[in-house]
Amino acid sequence: MRFDFSVVLIYIAFSAAIVGIALYLSRLLAPRIPDREKASPYECGERPIGSGWFSFNPRFYLMALVFIVFDVEIALTFPVATVVRSWVEAGKGLLAVGEIILFIVVLAAALAYVWGRGDLDWVRDIRGTLAETGSPDDPCAGPRGEGSA
User: Fold this and answer.
1) The total number of structural domains that make up the chain
2) Residue 141: beta bridge partners?
3) Which neighbouring-strand residues pair with 46?
4) How high is the pLDDT of residue 149?
5) Residue 128 in domain
6) 2 assigned to some structural domain
7) What mean pLDDT do residues 55-78 have?
């Protein structure tokens, strides 16, 4: 089956032209009446309260990255799983299953590493372990039970 890359280039040029024309027409025809309320941030129909610059807990980002990793795992494993039967008939089934197993083992090792580091624990002790902080009953105790005063 022969594939012409000129068709792809024509499609990309045609798409870019349509986008350019749409942007030009919206700039030409859209009303521009600046207003203080229009320039304010939109928060689900409510008036904004406070600044938009505030810190998120980094664990939100970590959980999102772990989710994306395993979402990509499913997205990459599913197409191979759908064609594995035809690969078995062609004599390449063992290779396909081996690649899927290797892929899942690498991701499981990454999950074990993240889990072992404690990055999946939502609530973490910021003081460290008991051996490092001393007595849990004495809030003024420094490392190894020494007083900080």
Assistant:
1) 1
2) 147
3) 43
4) 45
5) no
6) no
7) 81
